[in-house]
Amino acid sequence: MKPDDVEAVIESELEGAEATVTHARDKHDDDHLAATVVSPTFEGESLVGQHQQVYDALEDHMTTDIHALELSTYTPEEYDDLE
């Protein structure tokens, strides 16, 4: 699964989400990905809860198309504070 396709799935399943997906650094195969996801649906959720939302959005892709996914998740406010 291409990074752009993963972005599209995440953004279509999580309301208001903006996802950036790339191939993970220092990995030599295409099924190790890294994603940064910003979504207002993460507000009030634990980090585990945020990650679970992303995994739920990707459903079967996590077992068939994606071997590993490095996740960074933020609410819009948290992401703005990084800049």
Automatic annotation (TrEMBL):
It comes from the Archaea. PANTHER family: BOLA TRANSCRIPTION REGULATOR, BOLA-LIKE PROTEIN 1. It comes from Natronococcus amylolyticus DSM 10524. InterPro entries: BolA, BolA-like_sf, BolA/IbaG_stress_morph_reg. Belongs to the BolA/IbaG family. This is BolA family protein. Signal peptide: none annotated. Pfam families: BolA (PF01722). SUPFAM superfamilies: BolA-like.
